[in-house]
Amino acid sequence: MKNTIQLTKKLISLTSYKDGKQNEKPVSDFLYSFMCKQFPHLAVSAQKVAKNRYNIFATDRFPTKLLVVNQIDTVPPSLLWNTDPFTPKETEKNIIGLGATDSKGNIAAFLSALLQCGNTKGLALLWYVDEESQFAGMKYFVQSKEAKKINPKHVLSIDGNGCALGTSCRGVMECTIRISDTPKHSAQAKKNILIDFFDVILKTQKYIQTFSSKTLGKPTINIATVQSGCVKKKSVSNYTFQNQGNITPEMIEALVEIRTIPEITGKEIVQKIKEYAKDRDIKNIDIDIHFDETGFETKRNTLEPIQKSITQSIGGTIYLDPKNFGYLDIAMLKQIYPNTALCSFGVGVPGQAHAPNEYISKTNLQKGEAVYKQILKNLTTTP
After folding, report:
1. Which of 12, 105, 205, 326 is most enclosed, with most CB atoms within 10 A?
2. Percent of the chain, pLDDT > 90?
3. Last residue of a domain, one of 234, 263, 293
4. pLDDT in tens, 18-71
């Protein structure tokens, strides 16, 4: 347990942002060095995804039975923290710091378990960048030669919370919607594109709620950011608007995220948005899709060895509810491993991911260490 606490604090202290930009290099450098030194039976390699951003892949050189994966990045620190998010604070029960729950505590618990297990037979590991943004790390791995050399029976993401087993997740689509119009005097205008936009989104939300999956629940739509008005000045990514109430907006730009289910795809939802826009007589609309990723569903009976390991370690298995859980980019691995059983198990504290003053409990770290040790014992037998 001492190793787990020390590793959690060390990983928290390593930022994945520099000058406001994503830069996981300090985390990657530490993990690469640590794994080369502590696990000589593993062949450790780096996958350069972009400048100062690289995945770490490792294999014990035996045919892979278990691939364990996790992100190494975090969301940007918010201004609501009461402490320095990169200076870990240890209390009697918790460790506080950015990424403690999502998901550096999980990596620490797993590495501590691996230290106790010694040599493995059939294990591969992937620590990857950019999970919190565009999934560049996982997308790179899916296309890599390293991915094509293995064919795991199970994939375990240790990105999760609640000491619960995840067996499915909804898909996710992110897009930017831009609408433009000629501004008019507000006393004479019969149309307002900002009002039109919200009407279109509300109708889309009502429509997609008519679809449902027994396992995954209903699709959802989230307006993450909105910029609107009569433009005074434009920079690379932001606008300065005229501060006048008597003129209608000339443009609106919104970042929209949609959680999808197999019953209705992201592209089908975008098409519905366009139809409702046409009904509102919106003539200038552009929808730029950033990504559109499908989810996954794994039958529980294919996860028996992992469920057994969890029960042996902590007395029983509980399951994550995919209706209230985020997207897991291990879903992308279905592209190359169609017959592999995908799942997740993490020990983060529910509600703490992306929260200011994020923490993880020492009790959960201890449970994680025990579960990961048992999974390694049951699925990657020592030679």
Report:
1. 105
2. 86
3. 293
4. 777 889 999 999 999 999 999 999 999 999 999 999 999 999 999 999 999 999
Q: What is the CA radius of gyration of the chain?
A: 23
Pairing state between β 89-90 and 43-50: unpaired
In this structure, the answer to whether residues 300 and 267 fall within a common structural domain is: no
The answer to whether the CB of 342 falls within 8 A of the CB of 329 is no
Q: How far apart are CA 257 and CA 260, in angstroms?
A: 10
Q: Are residues 162 and 52 in the same domain?
A: yes
Strands (E), 115-202: 123-128, 154-157, 164-166, 168-169, 171-180
Phi-psi region of 281 (alpha: psi -120 to 50; beta: other; left: phi over 0): left
Query: Are 166 and 160 in contact, with CB atoms under 8 Å apart?
Result: yes
Residue appearing with tokens 């201004």 = 79
Contact 342, 153 (CB under 8 A): no
Give the number of other CB atoms < 10 A from CB of residue 26: 17
Could you give the CA distance from residue 131 to residue 55 in angstroms, rounded to a whole number?
Answer: 11
Which residues are CB-neighbours of 133 under 8 A, at least 6 positions away? Answer: 22, 73
**Cβ atoms of residues 44 and 111 within 8 Å:** no
Task: Tell me the two tokens of residue 346.
Answer: 């993490």
**Span between the terminal Cα atoms of the chain, in Å:** 25
Query: pTM here?
Result: 0.90
Provide the domain count of the chain.
Answer: 2
Instruction: Give residue-wise pLDDT tens across range 197-209.
Output: 999 999 999 999 9
Q: What are phi and psi of 302, to 5 degrees?
A: -85, -5
Torsion-angle region of 354 (φ positive above 0: left; ψ -120 to 50: alpha; else: beta): left
Residues 12 and 150 in one domain: yes
> For the residues 275-296, what does the mean pLDDT come to?
96
H-helix segments, 129-192: 136-143, 145-148
* Element of type H or E holding 256: strand 251-260
CATH number at residue 286: 3.30.70.360
pLDDT of residue 191: 87
For residue 287, give its domain range. Answer: 171-293
